[in-house]
Design goal:
Elements: E1 18-23, E2 26-31, E3 34-40, H1 44-48, E4 57-58, E5 75-80, H2 84-99, E6 103-104, E7 113-118, H3 123-142, E8 147-152, H4 158-167, E9 173-175, H5 183-193, E10 196-199, E11 207-208, E12 219-223, E13 225-226, H6 237-241, E14 245-246, H7 249-261, E15 266-270, H8 288-295, E16 302-306, H9 315-321, E17 330-332, H10 340-345, H11 352-365, E18 370-377, H12 384-397, E19 401-406, H13 424-447, E20 453-461, E21 468-472, E22 478-482, E23 491-499, E24 504-511
Parallel strand pairs: 3-10, 4-11, 5-6, 5-7, 7-8, 8-9, 9-10, 12-15, 15-16, 17-18, 18-19, 22-24
Antiparallel strand pairs: 1-2, 2-3, 13-14, 20-21, 20-23, 21-22, 23-24
Helix pairs in contact: 8-9, 12-13
Length: 516
């Protein structure tokens, strides 16, 4: 039986809302006794448009002096859902909060502010957030001075914001992905007005540099660009993150150099589609390959990137990655489907043949490359024969890992109006078969590592055993081994003794000499 689709229309009924006032700052409305200050709200039509306006780069973005003491003696919690981009946004929000005087806590009852940084990619992520809001309602009742905020990608969706306004009136702040830098002002507004504050910019803003970040550990994320212009039919990201806009290379390189100076061992360059980096520059000819070649010469042991789109993965980038050094031999290359017709319906803008040709070029240039991918099963119209094409592509490429998903429609995407005609039981069965093929190759790849000595960056204790440490190889494989906790944050040489499907076990041979 097909899953019942959500009726978002009911969240657009504002017949009980009263407009209290309206001026150049926005409008104030009242719903069920709660005053709501709407500074700006999401507009799906505007989010879809790609304007010609020049993107400004702003550097003077410090927290104003008058807002730096607001959080003195107060504590915060941020719950993060979704991708590395969301994690990185959370680092920025933590940095802003701590400049305002707030300190972090893990105890909800101690918190003066709780933010949910949300993901809009899949429906179950949205369900988790609304479930969490239900739990937080009791906390808000006990402590009316607690500030509750919903931010991130879900906040860019009209239906989500309207659902919060109608059903979750105890929330104090709603803001989106384009105006995170406005967090100090939104907190000030919410605290002093005692009203819900909604500020979601539908049109992406400028590139904001020099925002504080609170990074932890020895690995760092570095955002090199924002937004996506690919408009895959199943994906909401081009609407929630806006058009592609690249940070200036000198700003990215300066940030990476600073991370190297601080002793970070690994960085991951982030973008919705890193391969499109630089294509929006009008004054310089500078691509992602150029950026990687420049960063390759910075003294930081490991450099990764995610995520890349096969359509923009060019020969120049392959040539740079083949130079190795601190550029690791792991590439995440989402394919989504192994069938050309389904790829066309997804608007991926490449064919099965093009993807396999690209994989062949990469493997020839980087013989020890480890490839991982994303795959969706049960896309509208997918036949058994088309699914078999996905299985055969997975076997041919030989991925070491794959993030596999059952297709679910996202409100506002082109695919949402396609007939979702693959029954759920068929989707689940295909997912199981796909995972069996992926796991089989993952295990085969790990088995080949038995007896080899690999460099591992020690990340911490194993979740299940405090006597066991865990870390990752250059190819991003998870390794467990016994060792003392003072090794956390360093490189060690580990001999692989016991390969498993999801991770590998080994014994320390020596502590590696860190180049950081």
């Amino acid at each position: 039986m097909a899953k019942e689709t959500k009726d978002y229309a009911k969240y657009f009924d504002f017949s009980d809302a009263k407009v209290i006032s309206e001026d150049e700052r926005g409008k104030k409305i009242r719903i069920r006794g709660r005053d709501i200050q709407i500074l700006s709200e999401p507009d799906h039509r505007k989010e879809k448009q790609r304007g010609k306006e020049d993107i400004q780069v702003l550097y003077d973005t410090a927290v104003p002096e008058e807002l730096k003491g607001i959080g003195n003696g107060k504590k915060y919690i941020i719950y993060t859902y979704g991708c590395q981009m969301n994690e990185h946004d959370t680092e920025t929000m933590k940095g802003l909060l701590e400049e305002m005087g707030y300190t972090s806590t893990e105890e909800r009852k101690e918190a003066n502010i709780i933010l949910l940084n949300t993901c809009a990619i899949r429906e179950n992520a949205e369900d988790k957030v609304f479930g969490e809001l239900g739990h937080l309602k009791g906390l808000k009742t006990e402590n009316p001075d607690l500030l509750l905020g919903v931010c991130g990608c879900m906040s860019q969706e009209e239906g989500v914001v309207n659902r919060i306004l109608q059903k979750h009136g105890f929330v104090d702040m709603i803001f989106g992905t384009h105006n995170i830098h406005r967090l100090p002002y939104l907190i000030q507004e919410a605290l002093f007005s005692k009203e819900m504050v909604v500020e979601v910019w539908s049109k992406e803003g400028d590139i904001i540099e020099n925002l504080p970040k609170k990074r932890e550990g020895m690995r760092a994320w570095v955002n090199i660009m924002y937004g996506c212009d690919k408009f895959c039919t199943y994906c909401i990201v081009p609407f929630t993150r806006g058009k592609e806009r690249s940070r200036r290379p000198e700003d990215v390189i300066a940030e990476v150099r600073e991370l190297a100076r601080k002793g970070f061992k690994e960085i991951t360059l982030l973008g919705q589609n890193v391969n499109a980096y630089g294509k929006d520059f009008t004054d310089i000819d500078y691509t992602f390959a150029n950026l990687m070649d420049d960063i390759r010469q910075i003294d930081i042991p490991r450099v990764r990137f995610t995520t890349s789109h096969p359509r923009d993965f060019d020969d120049a980038l392959i040539e740079v990655l083949a130079k190795g050094g601190n550029l690791v031999e792991h590439i995440h290359l989402p394919v989504q489907s192994g069938n050309t017709e389904i790829l066309k319906r997804m608007s991926r803008k490449y064919s099965r043949e093009h993807y396999l040709e690209l994989v062949g070029k990469i493997k020839k240039a980087i013989p020890h490359v480890v490839l991982t991918t994303d795959i969706i099963v049960g896309f509208p119209g997918e036949t058994e024969e088309q699914f078999q094409d996905t299985l055969s592509l997975v076997r041919e490429v030989g991925y070491d890992f794959a993030y596999t998903f059952i297709y679910s429609p996202r409100e506002g995407t082109p695919a949402a109006v396609m007939e979702d005609d693959v029954p759920m039981e068929v989707k689940k069965e295909r997912l199981q078969r796909l995972n069996e093929v992926v796991n089989e190759h993952c295990r085969m790849s790990n088995d080949l590592m038995e007896g080899k000595i690999v460099e591992v960056l020690v990340e911490g204790e194993s979740k299940n055993n405090s006597d066991v440490l865990s870390g990752r190889t250059r190819s991003n494989k998870l390794v467990h081994f016994e060792g003392s906790k003072d090794l956390i944050g360093s490189f060690v040489q580990v001999e692989i003794t016991d390969p498993m499907t999801w991770y590998i076990k080994g014994n320390i041979v020596a502590t590696a000499v860190s180049s950081a």
